[in-house]
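User: Before I run my own analysis I want an independent prediction to cross-check against. Here's the chain; please return only the structure tokens and, at the end, one sentence I can use as a sanity check.
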Amino acid sequence: MKKVNQRDRVVAFMEKTGVALNPALARKELKIDRLAARICELEKKGYVFEKGWINGRNEYGAYRVRTYKLVKTPEENNIEI
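Assistant: Structure tokens:
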């Protein structure tokens, strides 16, 4: 049986749910701590992501969190993996 790596889990989650993924959600749902690194690796393989920000405020002040939404896969870009 093939071991599913973190990149595969990110893509599968995004394709299944269609939601924008952020580091907190990736940590909770996928047990992935370095989401930005996985997104960078996927972009090098031809995946395209829409990037955005979530702004918030808590007891320590204002913060913002990066979000990633899958737009195109390498197959949709006509790129061989």
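Sanity check: The beta strands are 48-58, 61-72.
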